[in-house]
Amino acid sequence: MADDGSGQDFGDAEDPRLTALDERLRQARETEATRSGAKIDTDRGYSQGNRVISALIGSLVGSALIGWLIDRWFGATPWGLIVMLFLGIAVAFRQIIRISGERPE
């Protein structure tokens, strides 16, 4: 049976209406994902996680070093380190709460 061209086959032809519809659907999906919060900026989350870890480690290490130095200079062997570690923990938690409370862009 010969193909006489009477059937309609839109597989090969570009229809501008379908292209416009696809574009509008893509924009609508992106808008809905952004509005509903489904679209998450992973780079921002990774950066925020790094800031939290560095605040925690930096505060604890820094306060431990200062407490150790206070113990060495003033001879208050365990108390300088203990007090400074508790202050370092408080500062770290304060920074973590401040970082986690930032609003997304």
Structural summary, described in words:
- It is a single chain.
- The longest helix has about 35 residues.
- The protein has about 100 residues and is mainly alpha-helical.
- Helix 2 packs antiparallel against helix 3.
- The N and C termini lie far apart (about 65 Å).
- It has a domain of about 60 residues.
Poorly predicted regions are none
Structural class: mainly alpha
The largest sheet is: none
Question: Can you give the helix content as a percent range?
Answer: over 70%
Distance between the termini: 63 Å
Report the strand count. 0
- Approximately how much beta-strand content do the residues carry? under 5%
The number of distinct helices, counting runs of at least 4 residues, comes to 3
Topology pattern, helix = H, strand = E: HHH
Let me know the average pLDDT: 83
Q: Write down the Rg.
A: 30 Å
The coarse overall form would be rod-shaped
